[in-house]
Design brief:
Radius of gyration of chain A: 13 Å
Number of strands of chain A: 10
Strand content of chain A: over 45%
Largest interface: A-B, 26 and 25 residues
Largest sheet of chain B: 7 strands, mixed
Largest sheet of chain A: 5 strands, antiparallel
Strand order of the largest sheet of chain A: 1-3-8-7-6
Shape of chain B: globular
Helix content of chain A: under 10%
Shape of chain A: globular
Helix content of chain B: under 10%
Distance between the termini of chain B: 38 Å
Number of helices of chain A: 0
Structural class of chain B: mainly beta
Order of helices and strands of chain A: EEEEEEEEEE
Distance between the termini of chain A: 40 Å
Oligomer: heterodimer
Order of helices and strands of chain B: EEEEEEEEEEE
Chain lengths: 111, 112
């Protein structure tokens, strides 16, 4: 099965700074790469995803970059705001029906 | 539009009591359905997933079971709860293998 690792496990940044979270995976058949944001007491929500035929995707302040050769993809958040504080999960996936999540990264944005 | 309902939101149960958590999806047909558990401050552990009525795949042998009696209904059960069953239980659905997940709002279970 897929082995997924996220780094760092915790990240603290000053408001306005950028944050980068990296996800590495083991299954070379993975071809779908989403990032989820989980706020306290809620279920995770998809914030951005990318497929294997694309190297980068951007949506306002968030972006995802993919390096299939090295088997990792990263979440980039620019101009961070306090409401970006949450736990972020990656969940790379291949042509199977289950999705395995990374252990999560707790991001704290200090005002 | 599709929606997912999960209930109850919180539950406190004594050790040894039974459990039934229900999840239903609206606005789609033949969804893939999932149950995850999340311990406090930890990641998401896949418990069960289902690709169709009566089809259940179990990821972790444990004190829990799942059933899918209808296309858009997924139930998580236990005959006798253990203290270690405490956690945040999340139901999710997906329309296919390369599609994102939509999660329910979760059930916080405390076994006392």
């Amino acid at each position: 099965g897929e082995n997924v690792e996220q780094h760092p496990s915790t990240l603290s940044v000053q408001e306005g700074d950028s944050a980068v979270i990296k996800c590495t995976y083991s299954d070379s058949a993975s071809n779908y790469f989403p990032w989820y944001k989980q706020e306290l007491g809620k279920g995770p929500q998809l914030i951005i995803d990318i497929r294997s035929n694309v190297g980068e995707k951007k949506d306002q302040r968030i972006a995802v970059t993919l390096n299939k050769t090295a088997k990792h993809f990263s979440l980039h958040i620019t101009e961070t705001q306090p409401e970006d504080s949450a736990v972020y999960f990656c969940a790379p996936r291949g042509n199977n029906n289950d999705m395995r999540f990374g252990a999560g990264t707790r991001l704290t944005v200090k005002p | 539009s599709q929606t997912i309902h999960q209930w109850p939101a919180t539950l406190v149960q004594p050790v040894g009591s039974p459990l039934s958590l229900e999840c239903t999806v609206e606005g789609t047909s033949n969804p893939n359905l999932y149950w995850y558990r999340q311990a406090a401050g930890r990641g998401l552990q896949l418990l069960f997933y289902s690709v169709g009525i009566g089809q259940i795949s179990s990821e972790v042998p444990q004190n829990l079971s799942a059933s899918r009696p209808q296309d858009r209904q997924f139930i998580l059960s236990s005959k006798k709860l253990l203290l270690s069953d405490s956690g945040f239980y999340l139901c999710a659905w997906s329309s296919g293998a390369l599609k994102s997940y939509t999660f329910g709002s979760g059930t916080r279970l405390t076994v006392v």
